[in-house]
């Protein structure tokens, strides 16, 4: 089977569905198709099925700019987010453009034809499509395998070891002793969610994370929605939350001691008197040097207060028959151990790119405005923020691409490519973030430059100016007919 479209989107998660909707709205004459490796819409929000799976940022900013989030809960349950993405796809018939079960493995650009030839595996078949533009919305991690460090003694352990990315639908943990290894967003979600039914849940962490409590329901957003209706209230609440998240991030960078003190006071109010906050909840780094974890309505702290959950800050020496032996000499008994130890990063969904027969090595490319690759024509990728909701950036990338497409059509141009002419440009990792999973995998990603337009901004306001309103034809961007 072959087909030719103007824009080929890869991935039908939050970003791919959003990109398609922007195309439909801004470029109704552009033809597009979406290739999706899995059999379902939703990406992350369909894949992760562990108890309590939820957003760890507010849905006014994780939701699309063009489609109000109408649920009462702003820190939302995973299935509600999945429903939102699915509904968005169904509403305007985007779902009819998706070819499920198509894993893109190769994309070859031909300058002679000004086209991408994209090869996807579909069962045992190989399917080829061609397109003028290739727009990847493949997320940032491997779907087939979560990250698990090599722990000693796992073969001795008589209980069950589970990774949150591969949650067994029939796992019964009621009345069981559970240890959750990890201290990131997944661990802090799992611990209170399992605590009600389990005998006890211990969160075992090597080092602590900053954890802030936030109301699951945003009273201002809900009041505005009831008073003004979705259409008017949503952009106001969205801007409020953008301002709050940017404010918290900036305050963390500039006044880390103040932010630390506020977090600590809020934790003290929710935890038992005398709780060892220094050991279990005070990282060595400053707030937002790594992602700050949110817990809705302080649920994790409540579980600790009620004795249903606890935090152990220690290192694993080895698994034993009955649980875990720790380096301090302590032992943790467990029937179930959950390895909330993270993701394996994957650049561009594992697609091999080539330009006129020459393979593209991602680490040798530079990211232009955090959304295109140097010397790779008519190619766009989507990577969201690490310090704010992903969709804020994904929406801007889509808007920028639509503006670029329309302008090129107006001027009879068919090819764009970003080129760096400055051999002295300093480069740095694309994701400048200390989190373990980023450090493990960032070397396979494109590089960022030390100045615009090669810098990857983590500032929404900067990107808003640059991507929504900024020039499309700076010195680095070349167009041809
Ligand atoms: C558990 C969890 C919770 C999160 N919570 C938040 C949060 O609260 N706020 C936030 O901002 N971010 C959060 N994130 C980050 C999150 O991944 C993004 O917010 C968002 O869901 C990314 O959407 P996406 O469509 O870009 O990528 P994904 O959701 O990863 O979807 C990518 C899609 O592309 C498909 N695909 C990949 N490679 C190929 C290929 N080669 N061929 C065909 N199809 C392919 C995949 O099958 C998938 O459907 C969370 C991540 C995880 C893992």
TrEMBL record:
Keywords: FAD, Flavoprotein, Monooxygenase, NADP, Oxidoreductase. InterPro entries: FAD-binding_MO, FAD/NAD-bd_sf, Flavin_mOase-like. It comes from Speluncibacter jeojiensis. SUPFAM superfamilies: FAD/NAD(P)-binding domain. Gene3D superfamilies: FAD/NAD(P)-binding domain. It holds the Pfam family FMO-like. This is NAD(P)/FAD-dependent oxidoreductase. Its cofactor is FAD. Belongs to the FAD-binding monooxygenase family. The lineage of its organism: Bacteria, Bacillati, Actinomycetota, Actinomycetes, Mycobacteriales. One of its GO terms (molecular function) is flavin adenine dinucleotide binding.
